[in-house]
Each structure stands twice: as structure tokens, then as C-alpha cells.
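Weekly sync, protein design subgroup
Attendees: M.S., D.O., the rotation student, P.L. (late)

Item 1: inverse folding check
M.S. brought a backbone from last month's batch and wanted to see whether the design step gives back something sensible before we order anything. D.O. pointed out we never logged the input encoding, so this time it goes straight into the notes. C-alpha cells as presented (519 positions):
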């Protein structure tokens, strides 16, 4: 029965070369003549069950020495009951129209009529959890047992929600597809229904941003909308949309606005515009990076932009992909393998349903950092404020700054080479310890003046390798194009980041230079 073995009273007969019968199962016959036999079910069997089939067949041929088995397959007959009653407002005992009464984990439900009455028929006998819900009321669940061939009288009382409000706006409205006389939308439900179930959504549409008017109302069971057909959308016209949610209290504020331009044949978008780059620096990781910003394409090709793609190349190298960005963003922060003193090129593309645009304008960026004393700096022979003082550097002395070795707690000392009165002083600064060790001049190029002081150096961050190259630049620093960040520390100096030279090369500006040197 139901795929399992069963034993008990059951009458059957076998007809063929001889006639046989039985009144229980299982039942065995011995010394049966060979031949063809047909089994016939007469009566009995498992209670509340019916014979579904006989396998392998109700007629079988028995040969000499063989054993044949007839299997009678019974299935349980489902017993049904029903449930009926009313749904009331618990605060005043009035009957509620439109309440939904459903059996959880089944497809059985009913809505109350104008008299608050409901009936659910054809419920298989058993125990269920009933869920009762209505707009403006707290949802209620209760366990019930349904017996076969009986109607369970069951009424429910719902508590009104005391402080319902309008729902929050629908979220993440987006254009899912656009084409020949087609604009399709989708959104996510509000994060809050305001304490009252969402009844419907209103779709607003217009041909300019901010001038949308009510266009369609759809049931709350849908979070998509298809605007299809030349009588609804005209190719070449840009349509703007937003959506609101409705509950028993009222209408939410608008969702985000989206737009789309249906076309008979969409094309790839035009390139993103006005790519720009600045350098950034993390004080937590001592890692250099770049921050890209741009403007959307002037044309999306008739299909909404789905993403942006970023590309980079090193000096003398080829472009390769470094990441993607969702269409709602027009900025990208990038940290991988960016070194102080490095030269890098960037461009970006836009992507829609047709394909990838041509590249944007190319941008180049390069690192250069200078140091300058803001007040007296005591030069000592060794670490520690008690070490012998060699000389005091007055305010206005320039030097070249780069990263030093890793200190015990994993932050970096700062290496600076100063020029003062024709001599060079170099050393380290870390935390409260400020000291510099005198060094003979061994540079091929001397520093002539602060105006011409612009030095190129390279340093590989987060590695043990430090390389510093100091040389006289080929271009004169334009002092009106400097970005200055003041570094407050016991050594009293500041960094001057050269933002732009006459060659139209963009330079780094730094933020959060070092956790031990806040602004």
C-alpha cells in the first residue's frame, strides 16, 4: 500500500489452466500446472484504499520450474473536510471584508465576503497552521485540525494596527530592457509597508525629468512593468519614470527616477566624458592609489548604460582591464600596484545591452612629493632627543621625502634628504623621534633654489626595496599650481605636492598621508 508491503484479508481468484482462489495476502500456491493465468481482485484489502494497478501484469504465463508473483498495488483514499467562519475586528466585533484566510504550506485560501464570511473546501484531513491577514490589521496564525467529511466552524479576530503610516518608496527602480517601441521596468518593494499591507503601485511617466504624471496603477503582486507597443512608447522619445507604493493610509514618496529612449535599433553608447584623476594615499596601509571620476556618455545608444569598465597601462605598456563599476556610479578608487614615483595611464568605457563604447579620453598621472621645514628642526647624530645636536635647520629648508624602513609596529619611518647651505642632511623621522644624520654631498646635480626644486624618486610601497633618485628637473616648478598639505608633528615640516606642471602632466594630491602625520 502506497509502495509498502501490507498483509491482511483480501479475496482474489486466478483463472487459467486451473482455477485458484485466496482470501488473504500474501498467499502462495504450489504444484500449479504450467499455463497462462489471470488474477481478478474480488474484495478486501487495506482500509480506505483502492486498487490502483497489478504488476507486472494481471495476466502472466507460468513455465515449468518458474515462480510468478502478482502484486496488487493499493493507494490510500484521501479524506477531505472543510472549514468556514467569519473574520472580526477585535476592537468592535465588526466583520472584516477582504481578509485572506490561508493554510500555510498549501495552495488553499479564501477571502471573506461583504459579510466577513469565508469557506475553504476540499481540505485533506490533517492538522494545519492557518494564517489570517487583512490590510490595517495585525496578521494572526492559529493551528486547526480538519476531520474527514466534516466542516470545522472557525472564526478569527484581528487586532487593528494602531499607528500605520504611508509606506516608504519602492527601491532600486531600473530599466531592464529598451528597444523597438519597448521600455521595461522593474523595482524592489519598499523597505517598510508603514504597518499596512501594500495594495498597489502607481507608475508615473513623462517626457522630461520632474514632469512625470500618473500613468498606470498595478497590483502589489507585481514589481515589473512592460511598456510595449508603438501606441504606448514612440521610438526616439526619451521617457522618464518613477514609481510609488500605496497602502491603506496613502501613497509613498517617489522612487528614484529612471529614463529610457526606445529606438528601432539600439547602438553602442558614446564614450564616457571628462575623465579626471587625482592621486590618493592611505594612512592605514601606506599605499598609494588613484581616484577616477567621469561624466556619463552624451548618448546611451538607445539602451541604458549597465556598467563602466576601467583600463590602465604603465609607461611603455599596453592597456589591460582593472575593474568594472555599476552604471549609477561615476567614480572609481584603485589601489593595486600604484607606486610613488610611478607613471600611469587610464581610460574607461561604457557598456549597454548592445556592447562596449569606444574609450574615453586618456589620463596620465605621476607622483612627486617634496618636504619643507615649517619651524626649527634639530639635526642629531642618533635617535633620541638626548643625542648630540649637529645643526638646527631653520624654516624654509627644502628636501625630498620618501618612505623609510618598516618599524617594529609595522608603520614606516619617513626618509628625508634636506639641502641647507650647500650641504645635504639625510635621515629618518618616526612618531615622536625626529633625527637626521649628516651626510657628504655625493649627488651629481646640486639643488639651486627652492623654485627649481622638483625631484623625481621612486619607492615601492609594502616591500623592502627603497630607491631614491635625485636630479635637477628639466622644467621649472609653477608655484601657483601647488597643493600644500600641512603635516603636524614634532619635526615641523609640510609636504608640497606638485599638482600640475607646464607639460600638462597631472600629479598626485595626497589624502591621509600617514597615521602618524595627521593634517
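Designed sequence read out in the meeting:
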Amino acid at each position: 500500500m502506497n509502495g509498502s508491503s501490507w498483509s491482511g484479508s483480501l479475496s482474489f481468484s486466478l483463472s487459467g489452466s486451473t482455477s485458484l482462489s485466496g482470501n488473504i495476502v500474501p498467499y502462495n500456491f504450489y504444484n500449479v500446472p504450467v499455463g497462462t493465468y489471470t488474477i481478478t481482485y474480488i474484495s478486501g484489502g487495506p482500509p480506505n484504499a483502492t486498487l490502483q494497478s497489478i504488476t507486472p501484469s494481471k495476466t502472466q504465463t507460468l513455465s515449468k520450474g518458474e515462480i510468478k508473483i502478482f502484486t496488487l498495488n493499493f493507494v490510500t483514499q484521501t479524506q477531505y473536510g472543510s472549514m468556514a467562519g467569519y473574520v472580526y475586528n477585535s476592537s468592535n466585533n465588526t466583520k472584516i471584508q477582504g481578509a485572506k484566510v490561508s493554510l500555510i504550506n498549501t495552495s488553499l485560501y479564501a477571502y471573506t465576503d461583504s459579510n466577513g464570511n469565508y469557506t475553504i473546501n476540499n481540505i485533506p484531513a490533517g492538522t494545519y497552521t492557518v494564517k489570517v491577514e487583512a490590510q490595517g490589521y495585525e496578521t494572526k496564525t492559529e493551528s486547526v485540525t480538519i476531520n474527514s467529511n466534516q466542516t470545522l466552524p472557525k472564526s478569527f479576530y484581528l487586532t487593528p494596527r494602531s499607528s500605520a503610516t504611508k509606506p516608504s518608496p519602492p527601491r532600486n527602480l531600473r530599466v531592464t530592457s529598451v528597444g523597438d517601441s519597448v521600455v521595461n521596468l522593474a523595482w524592489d518593494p519598499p523597505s517598510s509597508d508603514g504597518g499596512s499591507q501594500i495594495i498597489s503601485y502607481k507608475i508615473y511617466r513623462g517626457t522630461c525629468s520632474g514632469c512625470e504624471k500618473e500613468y498606470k496603477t498595478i497590483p502589489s503582486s507585481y514589481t515589473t512593468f512592460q511598456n510595449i507597443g508603438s501606441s504606448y512608447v514612440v521610438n526616439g522619445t526619451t521617457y522618464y519614470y518613477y514609481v510609488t507604493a500605496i497602502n491603506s493610509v496613502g501613497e509613498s514618496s517617489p522612487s528614484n527616477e529612471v529614463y529610457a529612449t526606445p529606438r528601432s535599433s539600439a547602438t553602442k553608447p558614446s564614450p564616457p566624458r571628462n575623465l579626471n584623476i587625482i592621486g590618493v594615499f592611505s594612512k592605514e596601509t601606506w599605499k598609494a592609489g588613484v581616484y577616477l571620476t567621469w561624466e556619463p556618455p552624451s548618448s546611451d545608444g538607445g539602451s541604458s548604460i549597465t556598467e563602466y569598465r576601467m583600463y590602465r597601462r604603465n609607461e611603455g605598456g599596453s592597456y589591460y582591464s582593472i575593474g568594472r563599476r555599476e552604471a549609477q556610479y561615476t567614480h572609481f578608487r584603485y589601489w593595486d600596484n600604484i607606486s610613488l614615483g610611478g607613471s600611469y595611464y587610464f581610460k574607461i568605457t561604457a557598456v549597454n545591452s548592445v556592447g562596449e563604447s569606444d574609450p574615453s579620453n586618456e589620463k596620465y598621472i605621476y607622483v612627486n612629493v617634496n618636504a619643507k621645514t615649517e619651524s626649527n628642526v634639530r639635526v642629531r647624530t642618533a635617535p633620541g632627543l638626548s643625542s648630540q645636536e649637529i645643526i638646527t635647520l631653520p624654516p624654509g629648508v627644502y628636501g625630498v621625502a620618501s618612505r623609510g624602513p618598516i618599524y617594529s609596529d609595522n608603520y614606516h619611518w619617513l626618509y628625508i634628504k634636506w639641502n641647507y647651505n650647500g650641504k645635504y642632511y639625510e635621515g629618518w623621522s618616526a612618531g615622536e623621534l625626529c633625527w637626521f644624520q649628516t651626510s657628504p654631498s655625493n649627488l651629481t646635480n646640486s639643488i639651486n633654489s627652492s623654485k627649481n626644486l622638483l625631484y623625481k624618486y621612486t619607492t615601492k610601497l609594502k616591500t623592502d626595496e627603497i630607491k631614491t633618485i635625485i636630479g635637477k628637473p628639466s622644467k621649472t616648478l609653477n608655484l601657483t599650481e601647488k597643493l600644500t598639505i600641512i603635516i603636524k608633528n614634532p619635526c615641523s615640516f609640510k609636504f608640497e605636492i606638485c599638482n600640475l606642471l607646464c607639460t600638462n602632466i597631472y600629479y598626485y594630491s595626497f589624502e591621509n598621508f600617514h597615521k602618524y602625520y595627521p593634517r
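Discussion: The chain has five domains: 8-76, 80-158, 171-260, 273-366, 369-498. The CA atoms of residues 345 and 461 lie 19 Å apart.
Action: P.L. to compare against the previous round before Friday.
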